[in-house]
Amino acid sequence: MTAPADKGKTEARKCNEAKLASLYEEYYDKIARYAYVRIGDKTEAEDLAGEVFVKALDSLESYQERGVPMQAWLFRIAHNLVVDHLRKATKRKTVPIDTVQVEADVDPMTAAEKNIELERVGRAMGQLTREQREVLRLRFFGGLTSKEAGSILNKSDGSIREMQRAAIEKLRRLLVTDY
């Protein structure tokens, strides 16, 4: 390769690194929330979110702009890491009861009500199709636009919006009849 070609690649990498750094600031929390909703462990979700950016940095040389925003590429990496994580997690981790600390300023009644409500929503989400659940996770927990979610799921913008509408409608029916 010639020196000008090397310089062009170096400049492109620096530009992508700067873009990735700004995306880290903007999307780390969204990716961590997306992972948390999928795996249910905050620390693991934060680790996976960090791993997304490490993998992205390692793969920056092969990244090509294809009309899809870089953040969609990051969520695709996050999706793949979550799937890998869930495959590896064959059994739940248990923690001895005497090592669990309860926050003193949390009202037990409020915490119990919140847990019951989350459990209800979780059961209702389980009644949705796998794709509907993924659309809701990307749109509401990942904070993505329908176009960005569509690029991750290989669906059109309109298809994502329709799946979201149908999923919300079904959740409403399920949650209303649950009472």
Features:
mainly alpha; Rna Polymerase Sigma Factor, Chain: A; Arc Repressor Mutant, subunit A; 7 helices; globular
Descriptive notes:
This protein has 179 residues and is an all-alpha fold. The protein has 2 domains: 1-93, RNA polymerase sigma factor, region 2, helix turn helix motif (Rna Polymerase Sigma Factor, Chain: A); 96-179, Arc Repressor Mutant, subunit A. It is built from 7 helices and no strands. It is globular and about 60 Å long.
Task: Give a short overview.
The protein is 75% helix and 0% strand.
Map the helices and strands.
Layout: H1 3-39, H2 42-58, H3 70-88, H4 108-126, H5 130-141, H6 146-153, H7 157-178
Helix pairs in contact: 1-2, 1-3, 2-3, 3-6, 4-7, 5-6, 5-7, 6-7
Radius of gyration: 20 Å
Task: Identify low-pLDDT runs.
Answer: none
Mean pLDDT: 82
Give the percentage of residues in beta strands: under 5%
Structural class: mainly alpha
**What is the overall number of helices?**
7
The CATH architecture term of the largest domain is Orthogonal Bundle
Shape: globular
Multimerization status: single chain
CATH fold assignment of the largest domain: Rna Polymerase Sigma Factor, Chain: A
One letter per element, helices H and strands E, the order comes to: HHHHHHH
